[in-house]
Write a structure and sequence with these properties.
The complex is a heterodimer. By secondary structure, chain A is α/β, with parallel strands linked by helices. Chain A has helices at about 20-25, 30-40, 40-50, 60-70, 90-100, 100-115, 130-145, 165-175, 205-215, 215-220, 255-260, 295-300, 320-335, 340-355, 360-380, 380-385, 390-395, 400-405, and strands spanning about 80-85, 120-125, 150-155, 200, 225, 230, 230-240, 245-250, 270-275, 285, 310-315. Chain A is globular. In chain A, about 60% of the residues are buried. Chain B has seven helices and four strands, in the order ααααβααβββα. Chain B has a four-stranded mixed beta sheet, covered by helices on one side. Classes of the chains: A alpha/beta, B alpha+beta.
């Protein structure tokens, strides 16, 4: 039986979320103090050595990212917390912020000290107006106690655009523009918000930071899978007995999450597929269930760890129907800036609808395969690059379901 | 009801604050009046086209009148397989309007949305962003009664 390990959710259920005294009594804000005693370079080296990799989905070494901003001499830098979790089936950042907002603020302040930034923004998705209130109350508390020093944090609310989870689109949105991704390079860590070096990290990434500073890189990197150490918060949805969230070490397998925490497929039905990492993730058949939940092992099977969404489908589900729905999602959420994504997601939806409505033919599969491969390579940002993944992986693993639509 | 010009004024010195201003207008009006977009352009010293471009980019912002209570139905995959279609049909029947339309009395508008992050209890609808979980067709009338 696999066991949960709570690092980012270390205070879940143990503290009153909006009572900073509880957070401090649980050891809160000691890590920020310790970080300031270490010096910027040593702090960044420690985070780098822990091998903490971004929990938003891209999996980049967090300390490395910080070092890019640290190395630039300029009058202003920014820390941005990406709380725009929009991947369908994901609500981990909400759970973290609702239950322990101070851990995120402390993580941001540590990052601010490390890179030399005194201003932070939390970009919270427009679907969570209650969270904006919680965060604003949470920010007032350490400010009143002087815990954050000269580091200031402001909350900005998104407007329901999935693409704003992409860091440069998110920055455009904070600047008051349409949330369209920028060309990269330059990366935001060099030229970001209002042209200044900006570190954009996910909520879950920031919540890890105080624990790493407190207990050390050696402690952290020994947890889970060495290539992507630590834990991952997963949100279990779809046809699973326990629709809940878990935080597990990154050497836990898909099967363990499904059975040990999820209680298996709901209603005693048979398993058909699980889509992990959100709606852009690949569909995973039974044969790959012993894969560990970390960035590299998931990539190796053509899937993603992504946001940690864990969407289970039982034997009765029509895979083509679900993927058609997903194709509509991407056509809706494409921002329209680059042609391969704007046109590609629209055509993909059109073909998927046709196939799902039993008006397609085998040539449509070739068309989608070709279109999908072009989009993966040619789209400007991760949205368009990942959009074909559900189509491509299901044509690979569940081809019979497509063929049955041609009879 | 607060004048949108006063609302915009509160945000005009906030860097990038035009989106925050639009949200604040919607909290008051439930939508952004056409004239408010022009007023925002002037206050934030941006071309009207840009102010309009921003207002129409985000699915949670709506330029032009709509119903007071905004009902959104999640149609992302987890809600889809949990039976969102039946909930959509029940809402349309109960309010006698189609998705995207507002009721004649101006009380409700029905909108499709993507994931609202409450996937532990699908299908989900939100009314003025308040989530209602595990919604079924037979619960719809009682939920709407709270707002009638």
């Amino acid at each position: 039986m696999a066991e949960e390990m709570r690092i980012v959710l270390r205070n879940y259920g143990k503290i009153e979320p909006l009572k900073i005294e509880d957070y401090i009594a649980a050891g809160g804000y000691k890590a920020l103090e310790k970080a300031k005693g270490m010096g910027q370079q040593a702090l960044i080296d420690e985070v780098k050595k822990s091998n903490l990799r971004g929990r938003g989905g891209a999996g980049f070494n967090t300390g490395m990212k910080w070092s890019f901003s640290y190395g630039i001499k300029t009058d202003q830098k920014y820390v941005v917390c990406n709380a725009d979790e929009g991947e369908p089936g994901t609500y981990k950042d909400r759970i973290i912020m609702e239950n322990d907002p101070q851990s995120v603020l402390e993580g941001m302040a540590i990052c601010g000290y490390a890179i030399g930034a005194n201003k932070g923004y939390i970009y919270c998705r427009g679907e969570y107006p209650h969270m904006v209130e919680i965060l604003n109350k949470a920010i007032d508390q350490p400010k009143a106690k002087g815990c954050l020093g000269d580091f200031n944090i402001e909350v900005r609310m998104g407007g329901g655009a999935y693409v704003c989870g992409e860091e440069s689109a998110l920055i455009e949105s904070i600047e008051g523009n349409r949330g369209e991704p920028r060309f990269k390079p330059p990366f935001p860590s060099v030229i970001g918000l209002w042209g200044k070096p900006t570190i954009v990290n996910n909520v879950e990434t920031f919540a890890n930071i105080p624990a790493i500073v407190d207990k050390g890189a050696d402690w952290y990197k020994a947890i889970g899978n060495a290539k992507y150490p630590g834990t991952k918060v997963m949100t279990l949805t779809g046809d699973i007995t326990n629709k809940t969230f878990v935080e597990v070490p990154t050497n836990t397998t898909i099967r363990q999450v499904l059975n040990d925490f999820g209680g298996g497929v709901a209603g005693g039905k048979k398993f058909k597929a699980v889509q992990i990492g959100g709606t852009s993730g690949g569909f995973i058949p039974e044969a790959f269930l012993d894969t560990q939940l970390n960035f590299d092992d998931m990539s190796a099977i053509g899937a993603t760890l992504g946001s940690g969404a864990f969407f289970v489908m039982d034997e009765s589900r029509d895979i083509v129907d679900v993927v058609a729905r997903i194709a509509k999602f991407f056509a809706h959420e494409s921002c329209g800036k680059c042609t391969p994504c704007r046109e590609g997601t629209m055509r993909m939806e059109e073909i998927m609808e046709r196939v799902n409505d039993r008006h397609g033919d085998a040539a449509d599969l070739d068309r989608m395969d070709r279109l999908g491969r072009v989009m993966t390579k040619a789209c400007l940002c991760g949205l368009g690059q990942a959009a074909p993944s559900p189509v491509l992986t299901t044509m690979q693993h569940f081809k019979d379901e497509y063929l049955s639509k041609f009879n | 009801m607060a004048d949108y010009k006063d609302i915009i004024n509160q945000y005009k010195d906030l860097p990038g604050g035009i989106i925050e201003a639009y949200h604040a207008i919607q909290r008051e009006y439930s939508y952004i009046p056409e004239e408010a977009v022009e007023a925002a352009a002037a206050a934030f010293k941006r071309p009207k086209a840009e102010a309009y471009g921003v207002a129409t980019f985000y699915s949670y912002l709506k330029v032009g009148k709509r119903g007071k209570n905004v009902i959104r139905i999640c149609e992302s995959a987890p809600c889809h397989i949990a039976g969102a279609d039946a909930v959509i049909a029940a809402l349309e029947k109960e309010l006698s309007i189609k998705m995207g339309e507002s009721t004649a009395d101006g009380k409700f508008v029905l909108e499709l949305t993507e994931c609202v992050g409450q996937c532990q209890t699908t299908p989900v609808i939100t009314i003025n962003s308040k989530p209602y979980e595990n919604v079924t067709a037979d619960k719809v009338a009682a939920i709407l009664a709270e707002y009638k």
